Amino acid sequence: MLHNPATPPAKTRPPFASFEKSQNRYGWFFASFALLLLGLFMLYPIISSLYMSTISSRGVIQTFVGFGNYLKLLNDPVFLQALQNTFIFFLIQVPIMLLLALVIASLLNDKSLRFRGVFRTGIFLPAVTSLVAYSLLFKMMFSADGFINHGLMALHLIAAPIPWLTEPFWARITVMIAMTWRWTGYNMIFYLSGLQNIPDDLYESAEIDGAGRLQQFRHITVPMLKPILLFTAIMSTIGTLQLFDEPMNFSAMGVSAATIGPGNSLLTMSVYIYNLCFKFMPNFGYASTVAYAIVFLVAVFSVIQFRLAGDKK
Amino acid sequence: MKKLFAMLVTVCMAVSLLACSGAAAMGAAKKSGKITIWAWDPNFNIAVMKEAKARYQKNNPNVQIEIVEMAKADVEQKLHTVLASGVKEGLPDIVLIEDYNAQKYLQAYPGAFDDLTKKINHKNFASYKNKLMTVNGKIYGVPFDSGVSALFYRTDYLAKAGYKPSDLNNLTWDKFIEIGKKVKAATGKDAYTFDPADGGLIRIMLQSAGLWYFDKNGKPYIANNPALKEAFATYKKLMESGMIKKTTGWNEWVSAFNKGEAASIITGCWIIGSIKAEKSQSGKWAALPTPRMNLKASVNYSNLGGSSWYITQGSSNKAVAEDFLKSTFAADKDFYQKILVGQGAIGTYLPAQNGPSYTVADEFFGGQKVFSDFSAWMKKIPGINYGVYTYEADTALMTVMPEYLAGKLTVEAALKKAEDQLKNQINL
């Protein structure tokens, strides 16, 4: 039962009771469509895929295995490699990107800076490009005789072309560079909007107290932005754990190439799900298990980040 | 008299009308209806299918044929999704399936494809093609193109290094590398180009020795597979030879040889269309049998890829679909001549291989009769059963490859690791 906190004291209830009831009835009626759709397209798939994760399948041939898939997951070298790859991206790329976004945001928040709008737009622009288009563009730029290698060689920074996409180490670096390019501006926008809410007098009084720019950044900007920082950190965690487009497009697309990046160095959990459904012997049950592993990891990391941020609520 | 004449005319007309309707009735006994076909590659499979469609419709004007072009990955993805969901609608009547994946589809979705054992005379097709579409003695598809592999090379680059085509006869991989290094020194161009993330090269080497990732019983055969050991060693020699242009993905690879940056490629004959796309290089290319490994069993003939046509069991026009494939891909010799010249499609329909087009001298390949060469080599390809898990094995092997190449793993340890990964992967 919905309860309206604004309902007047009991004395006046009789004349209002029927109204309240009917209001609830209409409320439920209108909400029912949304609830039905929500149940059909959100709740049902969630429960159905949970059930599917207890099944091992070869196409349409299904066997119930209970927790078998989850046990298999823990000993699956391919999954563990995907997990490891994902964590390499998560632990290196996400902090770099968020720090960079924060620094750029506070620089662009300076009111004395001219053409702020142009810079902001320029840095945000990558976030609205098509994922596939930008991946392919980066792949071209970073190919053995692409723009990047030519440029670096012309500047005499390197003697031989860097094997950007044909060595596991460099392949990961390339993806990290691409992701940083694509997502830094996106995070910067959140920080910029957060910065607008920090009162100027805080900075003014800090300046009077003799705090330098760096100190102001550390002791005012960062603490005041904490909720936003937490939000971007969680969003980036989810995004990284679900990473799909970049690895898929940087390798020769899932189906034709044997591995995702050299030595499967770019294989992520989401790409593994794709492979399990469409490239390997289709095992939709096991693919759901991997999907649930991602859900579990996202939940765990969100909780950890909430704790680290000291958010008691 | 007038009346009689009028009656006569009426009778005549009636008779002719009846005759007409009789003919119409007979026409209806002919095939009619609509069939849908899914395939990929507009320059190859789709173009070939369009030719088949035109030929079939000449005799069966009432049959509508819709050819739907999709990327290969999309065809596979859609097929898996619809078949797994169990829905009867949404599938095409005829679909193209890559040979490596044939067993996967046939075994994962029993009853989803039409049994063609008695409907098509499979004796007319290359036996290795029939083998890979057979489950429990039943043959499920109509074989299409061969993936007979070849060494395509630039004769002009080779001449610069002082080699004649005859120096490449009966080639081994070691000799190939030796020649390649000299070509690189003489021309400054890389001798060979390929994508290191692609397992195709290993598959070519393996099949040339008549072995595969799996033994006859379908069990993983990796750790102690002598051909695989040799293939890994050969692969390492190649990678360390300093004469290779490494590319990522199909487009980069094709542009590497189209731009003349590499002297050779080793792949399936279906690449001819892409080689010929660069018209300025006409007359500069030639084709030879693939190199063989230092193994007694290894021959100079192998295969890469290839695909075949399958009819879905749920097709509402199965009879038409069967008739269509039967009267084009399994009967029409002339059709094969046409697609050979047009698309370079080497069909595996044996009676067509005595046709005139096969002996045409191709100016692009310096007057070489490439097609008669290919069909001769095709017959010498060791037949093997690809089994169900080719791509799983491919992934496992190419995953350990960088560690093996970097010297972190011996060949034995690398193969052991790959086998463990594969076993874990396919264990249900």
From TrEMBL, chain A:
<feature type="transmembrane region" description="Helical">
    <location>
        <begin position="121"/>
        <end position="141"/>
    </location>
</feature>
<comment type="similarity">
    <text>Belongs to the binding-protein-dependent transport system permease family.</text>
</comment>
<feature type="transmembrane region" description="Helical">
    <location>
        <begin position="87"/>
        <end position="109"/>
    </location>
</feature>
<keyword id="KW-1003">Cell membrane</keyword>
<dbReference type="GO" id="GO:0055085">
    <property type="term" value="P:transmembrane transport"/>
</dbReference>
<keyword id="KW-0472">Membrane</keyword>
<feature type="domain" description="ABC transmembrane type-1">
    <location>
        <begin position="83"/>
        <end position="305"/>
    </location>
</feature>
<dbReference type="Pfam" id="PF00528">
    <property type="entry name" value="BPD_transp_1"/>
</dbReference>
<dbReference type="InterPro" id="IPR051393">
    <property type="entry name" value="ABC_transporter_permease"/>
</dbReference>
<feature type="transmembrane region" description="Helical">
    <location>
        <begin position="286"/>
        <end position="308"/>
    </location>
</feature>
<protein>
    <submittedName>
        <fullName>Lactose/L-arabinose transport system permease protein</fullName>
    </submittedName>
</protein>
<feature type="transmembrane region" description="Helical">
    <location>
        <begin position="26"/>
        <end position="47"/>
    </location>
</feature>
<feature type="transmembrane region" description="Helical">
    <location>
        <begin position="224"/>
        <end position="244"/>
    </location>
</feature>
<feature type="transmembrane region" description="Helical">
    <location>
        <begin position="250"/>
        <end position="274"/>
    </location>
</feature>
<keyword id="KW-1133">Transmembrane helix</keyword>
<dbReference type="InterPro" id="IPR035906">
    <property type="entry name" value="MetI-like_sf"/>
</dbReference>
<dbReference type="GO" id="GO:0005886">
    <property type="term" value="C:plasma membrane"/>
</dbReference>
<keyword id="KW-0812">Transmembrane</keyword>
<keyword id="KW-0813">Transport</keyword>
<feature type="transmembrane region" description="Helical">
    <location>
        <begin position="147"/>
        <end position="166"/>
    </location>
</feature>
<dbReference type="InterPro" id="IPR000515">
    <property type="entry name" value="MetI-like"/>
</dbReference>
TrEMBL record, chain B:
<comment type="similarity">
    <text>Belongs to the bacterial solute-binding protein 1 family.</text>
</comment>
<dbReference type="GO" id="GO:0015768">
    <property type="term" value="P:maltose transport"/>
</dbReference>
<protein>
    <submittedName>
        <fullName>Lactose/L-arabinose transport system substrate-binding protein</fullName>
    </submittedName>
</protein>
<keyword id="KW-0813">Transport</keyword>
<dbReference type="Pfam" id="PF13416">
    <property type="entry name" value="SBP_bac_8"/>
</dbReference>
<dbReference type="GO" id="GO:0055052">
    <property type="term" value="C:ATP-binding cassette (ABC) transporter complex, substrate-binding subunit-containing"/>
</dbReference>
<dbReference type="GO" id="GO:1901982">
    <property type="term" value="F:maltose binding"/>
</dbReference>
<dbReference type="GO" id="GO:0042956">
    <property type="term" value="P:maltodextrin transmembrane transport"/>
</dbReference>
<feature type="signal peptide">
    <location>
        <begin position="1"/>
        <end position="25"/>
    </location>
</feature>
<keyword id="KW-0732">Signal</keyword>
<dbReference type="InterPro" id="IPR006059">
    <property type="entry name" value="SBP"/>
</dbReference>
